[in-house]
Structure formats: C-alpha cells, structure tokens
Amino acid sequence: MSRLLKYSPGVVATGCVWLGLSWGLFNVIKYAFTDVDGLILDDPWLQQVLLFSIKQAGLSALFSVGGAVLFALAIARRVFWGRQWLMALLQVCFALPVIVVILGIVQVYGRSGWLNHLLGTEFSIYGLAGILICHVFFNLPLATRVLVSHLEAIPDSYYAQAAQMQLNGWWRWRWLEWPLIRTQVVGLSLLVFLLCFNSFTIVLALGGGPKSTTLEVAIYQALRYEFDLPQAGILALLQLALAIIIAVLATRLMPASTTTAPISVHRSQQALWLSASKLWVTIRGFGLIFCLLPLLAIVWGAWSGLSAWPWSSSLGEATLNSLLIGLCSSLLACLLSLAMLHFRQHMRYRCVDRWLEQTAVAALYLPPVVLATGWFIGTLAWHRADYWSYILIVMANALMALPFTFRLIASAFQHCYDYYGPLAQSLGLRRWAWWRWFVLPMTNKPLAQSLALAWILSLGDMGVAVLVGAADFNTLPLTIYRLLGSYQLASAMAVAVWLLVCCGLCYGLVYLTLGRKSASS
Amino acid sequence: MLFIKHLFMTVVHAPRLKTRSKAITSKLLLLFSIVPLLSGAAEPQQPLTLTVFTYESFISEWGPGPKLKAAFEKQCQCTLNWLSSTDGVGLLNRLRLEGEHLPADIVLGLDQHLIVAAKKLKLFAPHQQSLPPLTLPDPWQDKVFLPYDYGYFAFIYDSRKLKNPPQSLAELVKRKDIQVIYQDPRTSTPGQGLLLWMQQVFGNQTAQAWQQLAAHTVTITKGWSEAYGMFLKGEADMVLSYTTSPAYHQEVDKVTHYQAAAFNEGHTLQVEVAAQLAQSKQPELAQQFLAFLLSPSAQRIIATHNWMLPVRAIKKLPPAFGQLITPRKSLEMSLETIAKQRKQWLRQWRRAVSQ
C-alpha cells in the first residue's frame, strides 16, 4: 500500500501528460496520412506559408535580440533613478495577455492610432509590420532581462581593472561585455525565433490576409475555414517537426554557464561607464517608450471608452468562463507538478529525473495549437464541440503552464526533502503528517506563485479557445478579439482593462491567501 | 533545457506584494459576491424558443433581424433567438464541426451554391411548404432549402471618386489603379460568389486573373460586414457586394453616389436559402417560421433591410429598387460542378493570392 502511494501519483501524472501529448500527436499523424490527394505538399502555397513563417520569426528574433543588446547595455552600464521599476516593467511586458497587447499596439500604431495622428501618415499595421512590432514588444523585454542579468554578473573587479588599464568605451565592450553577450546571442535568438514561430494569436489578429499567413494560422484555417482534417494534420505535423528542430538547436547552442541570480547588483559608481553619453540615454528612452506606450494606450482607451463599457450578460459569462478555466487549469498544472516531484523524490535515478524534466517542459516545444488540433480532431467523433471546449482548453492551458509550475516548485520541494527528510524518517512521521507539517508549509510560497502564474497565463490565452471553442463560446480574450474584429476599439479596451483587473485579482487572491502563510510558520 | 531557464527567470521573479490580512478577506468576499451576480438569477420558465442560426449582418441593428423577430414573435407566442456566424460559408463550416450538437432549429443564410455540400451532412429536414409563385429567374425545385431572397453580385463604387468605373470583370482585374476589397471565399458567400464569377469569366486563365487582382487588393476579409465597412470608410475604391446595395444608400442615407458597376460578362446570381435542422425539438415552430419567411410582410422586411430582391412579387417596393442595374446576363453554374470543383478552385485562389 505504502509503495503504491509512493509511486502511483507520479506515474499517473506523468502517464496522463504523455498520454495527452501522444494522443494529440496520434490524431494529427493519423489524419496527416489520410491526405489521399497528397496535393498540399507540392502546393506552391505551402512554400509561401513556410517562407513567411520563417521570415517573420527570423526578423522578429533579429529585431528583438538586436534591440535587446542595445537596451541591456544602456540599462546595465549606469545606475539611474527608476531602474528597478524599469526592470519590473520589462517583466510585466512578457506576462501580459497577448490580446491586450495587440489592442494597445493597434491603438498606438494602427491606422487611426496615435502615431499616424502625430505624423499625419497612413501606416497600416496589418501584415508583417504589425506582427513584428508585437513580437518585438514581447521578446525584447525577455531578451533584455536575460542580457542585463548576465552583464551584471561581470564582477566589479573586472571593471576596476579595466579602468586601471584605461580601457575606453570600445575596448571595454570588446573585452568585457561582448564575450559575455556573444555566448547568449545565438541561443537567445533561437529561443525568440521559436517563440515567434509558434506564435498564433498575434498573427491571427494582425496578419491581415493570405499574404501573411503562417503555418499556425494555416492550421487554424484548414480546420475552421475548410474543415479539411488531413490538411490540418499535415500542416500541424510540419509545424511540430520544425518547432522541435529549432528547440533542439536552441538547447544545444545555449551555453551551460548561466547564472540565474536575481538582478539586484548595486554597482559602485566607479565600475560604471562614466561617459554620460546622450546615446545611451536616448536608447533607454526609446526602450521605455516602446514598452510603455501600448500599456498607456489601453488605460487611456479604457478611460475614454467608459461610456461604451460593454456590460452585458455575455461579458459576465465570458468572465466566469475565463476564471473557471483558469482556476481548473492552474490547479491541474500544480497537482501534476506536485505528483511528478513527489515521484522524483522517491525514484532518484538520473534517467527518471531527466524523463520527468522532459515531460514537464514538453509543452514548450510542442506548439499548443498543434496539440489542441490533435485533441480537437480526436474528440470530434464523440461529442463535437459541446463541453469539450472547456475540457480541451483546461488541458491545453495546464500543459502550457506545467514547465513554469514544475520549475517553480521544484527547488523548494527538493530543499524540503533534503533538509527535513531524514528528520521526518527518524521521527517516523506518517505521510499525511509529513505533507501537512513539512512539505506544504515549505513549498507554499512557490506553490502559490505557480498557481497564480498558471491562472494568469490561462486567463490571457486565446489561441486554444479560438481553435477549439464553439462559435458562441466566450472567454474574455475572445470577447476582446471579436470586438477588435468589428472595430469597437473603445469597448475592446474596456474589456481589456477588465481582463487585467481579473488577472490582478486572481494573482492577489492566490498570493495573499496561500503565499502569506509561510511567513508566519 | 537551459533556454527554458531564461524564459522561466523572466516570468517567475515577480515583485513581492505587501499584504494586510483584512485585504484578503475583503477580496475574497468581493470575488464570491461577484460570481453569483455574473451567473445571473434563475430565470422563470420561458415559452417556446426558436433559435435561428444566421450570418452577422442579417441580425445587425440595421439588418432585417430585429424587425423579423418582432413580427414573428407577435404571431407565434414564442421567443426567437439568433445565433450568428461571420458570414454564410461560416455557417456551413460550423455545421460541419458541430453537426447535430448545434443548438439551433433553423439555418438561414446559405446560398444555392452550398446546397449540395450542405445536403451531404444529412442534417436538414424537408421544408414542407407549398411554394407561392416566385420571382426567381429559374423555377425552384429543392425540397429542403427554401429561398427567401436573391441578388446578383456586383462591385460597388463611389461615383464621386471613381469617374470611370470598369465595364467588365476583365477590365477590373487589369485596372491597377482601382483598390479592391473582397471577402474570403472560404468563409463568405459573396467571396465564394466571386470565385465562381471569376471561374466563369476566365476559365483556364483564372489563376492569372487572381494574381492580377491580388496586385491591387487592399485586403480579403472574413465576412461581408467588415469589407463593406472598410469600403465606406474610404479604404478602397471598390468592394464586392450586390447590385441591390445602392438601394440601401438611396433609401436610408438619401445619397446616390454609391453605384454598382454593370459588367459586360454578366453577374453571378445568388439565391439565399433557409432550412430546418432535423435535430430541432420544435419542428412545428420551425415550419411556421419558414412559412413566415415567405409571407409578404417578411419579404418586405427582408427586401428593405437585407437589401436583396424579394422572392415574391411585392407591391410598392421603395422606388430605389426600380433604379438598380439589371445584369446583362445572369451567370449560373451547375451545382454539381461547383460541389465537385470547389476545393480545387479554392486552392487555386489560395495559391494565387498568397504570392
């Protein structure tokens, strides 16, 4: 019995995850090979789609990482007022719901947006330009944070020495900063490339026409516009293969010596570049404006759109759906993580360790759209899109959050077992007592964090819901997307702010109720 | 898995929040007080409800939807609900996905070109109506789908801006100075109409024609409403719609500068149809609605709000209907050919416009 309890939750959890993944893939593959026409693979259209997918991801990676190098240097080289706030802003940028950012970007750069107003131009955001702006908005902050953390890991003494040797600007860059940045640039670029290659919502919302269709959007169109399952299967398989290749490359090319220390280094003034170059101030200013403008646009838009506040029963339903799906998927993600970690503690073999780790992060390379496509095709025969919408979205969101929740909880969990495991064993604690008095109190902060994070990620996710949801299925991001589609920007902004409020409330609620306890215990 | 660490690092190190215990309880209370509000109080028992699945512009506030609902509810002692999709072909796509689980009694807004494909789903019941004399160009034979209006596709332009509109589809395709918006043939019936129109006019040369058109296409929208809205905002010189669209501007906006361009090759005919779903739990009510659709009062509402031609002769239609262009030729195609070739043509279109 005790052995059963020891292993079964972990086995079941890992089994469930792998079953989910392989069932999704199985369906995709099954349909991909029923394409009797076999026409699609030598269709020039497919080449166009592939080319565009790669082009947009490549350009996004180039601009994001290129911009991030400059921005990171501008941040890391000087201590300035509000630095911590800027870093916090960069972090917020990455975690924002995609559709909210799209809305902000349309407000700033769109045809009747601020920029066109200011310059008197008629720049259209739909197409490659909009996709790039949006991708850079998400990935530039990500890359910047990573690079800043590395630049700050350069010991003070190096700088002191450089100063002694009277190395000036270029040479410091050449001998101090570049070697560090160089190790990161390739891996980071590939990571951003992968994220943009797998990006769905942004291309769907800002793509604007057949010329800017990516593979992911083509999958969606095959499924929802043409109901062509074999075609969807083939496209999904192609997307999957490419995503895996890129992920493997990224992993290989990412150097092992990385530091994950939180960014809190306070450099002595001496260590900094004292050249008060206007260039760096300008770069910082640009970076700040670029990240801040869409956020301001949403707040401003929501404020001016208060009269158009679309309160209706359908918004209530959307809110409820979003909150419930988020809650279920975050609970599921945390439960799976706990079960897998528990299993890992009792099966301390390297291979099991690796296997569990791989399971947890699988969802990062497998594009959610591909998985959801497989599940969607698989459930068609049973119940079609009824309450399966909910189940599929919860499953997909839980898998998307799993890499984060697993890693968040892992170290605290490990710590608890390492330090108190022997003690508990010598006390002969029963399993429930061990969990009640040791594991839960000790992991409760990361647990709360991962619950909150998973909840927020799910609240902001739209891709899976668009793909599998019945047409009258409603979540908050879907409501925003539809309002945006019918040019009701003011109402869309109001809902976007409401979504942000919901995110804040969920985060606060989980964090305050669960995360607080460990402080007192 | 180091690259994941980066990703993880940026997400996870969230700023810590300072807390007060009172705040928690109040927030908890807030959440729990919101939830029941959102879900709504239990509603009293409703009379029968008929759900009609149709496209967006049909039920917009200026469309026929609201008027039809009021008129039908008066005579049926029931509630009429709408369920909507962006455009006509979208209706069929959703039917394919959800089949007998689709919560609707009537599907309204497919056109004659989709009938063969729709029948293959085996989801529809016969309409059981004895048809009055119809104004359609050809006699109506179908026993399942009931026609409720018809029209001819046409490109609409603003005669104040475009002084020399093209005289033929071939000219339009070649005229690079004319910015065009049309609808996606995979989701929208006008878009599909253009697909057939192009096919009939250009035959083997259709792929090249699509490419030529793509060179001066602003965008391809998912549905009619979006395309027409963009055109009215001035984002294009011509938009794909119907010969009847100018009547709307004449009657409602009292302006005459929006015109339909008459093309030498003729115009493709569209007959919009409705049918009862076999899964309907109140077939009598559904049949009553179908009969209502052909009644003179409903036909008048449809003609003057959907801005299509009524399928029955109606007295005293607004005078604007008398000033519409009459197509030189009504282009029609065998429905079997369409059903067989549609996918091929769609791929050809997709290939041409993605370049």
UniProtKB/TrEMBL annotation, chain A:
<dbReference type="InterPro" id="IPR035906">
    <property type="entry name" value="MetI-like_sf"/>
</dbReference>
<feature type="transmembrane region" description="Helical">
    <location>
        <begin position="88"/>
        <end position="111"/>
    </location>
</feature>
<feature type="transmembrane region" description="Helical">
    <location>
        <begin position="12"/>
        <end position="33"/>
    </location>
</feature>
<protein>
    <submittedName>
        <fullName>ABC transporter permease subunit</fullName>
    </submittedName>
</protein>
<feature type="transmembrane region" description="Helical">
    <location>
        <begin position="185"/>
        <end position="209"/>
    </location>
</feature>
<dbReference type="Pfam" id="PF00528">
    <property type="entry name" value="BPD_transp_1"/>
</dbReference>
<feature type="transmembrane region" description="Helical">
    <location>
        <begin position="388"/>
        <end position="410"/>
    </location>
</feature>
<feature type="transmembrane region" description="Helical">
    <location>
        <begin position="451"/>
        <end position="471"/>
    </location>
</feature>
<feature type="transmembrane region" description="Helical">
    <location>
        <begin position="229"/>
        <end position="250"/>
    </location>
</feature>
<feature type="transmembrane region" description="Helical">
    <location>
        <begin position="491"/>
        <end position="514"/>
    </location>
</feature>
<feature type="domain" description="ABC transmembrane type-1">
    <location>
        <begin position="319"/>
        <end position="510"/>
    </location>
</feature>
<feature type="domain" description="ABC transmembrane type-1">
    <location>
        <begin position="50"/>
        <end position="250"/>
    </location>
</feature>
<feature type="transmembrane region" description="Helical">
    <location>
        <begin position="362"/>
        <end position="382"/>
    </location>
</feature>
<feature type="transmembrane region" description="Helical">
    <location>
        <begin position="279"/>
        <end position="303"/>
    </location>
</feature>
<comment type="similarity">
    <text>Belongs to the binding-protein-dependent transport system permease family.</text>
</comment>
<feature type="transmembrane region" description="Helical">
    <location>
        <begin position="123"/>
        <end position="142"/>
    </location>
</feature>
<keyword id="KW-0813">Transport</keyword>
<keyword id="KW-1133">Transmembrane helix</keyword>
<keyword id="KW-1003">Cell membrane</keyword>
<keyword id="KW-0472">Membrane</keyword>
<feature type="transmembrane region" description="Helical">
    <location>
        <begin position="53"/>
        <end position="76"/>
    </location>
</feature>
<dbReference type="InterPro" id="IPR000515">
    <property type="entry name" value="MetI-like"/>
</dbReference>
<feature type="transmembrane region" description="Helical">
    <location>
        <begin position="323"/>
        <end position="341"/>
    </location>
</feature>
<keyword id="KW-0812">Transmembrane</keyword>
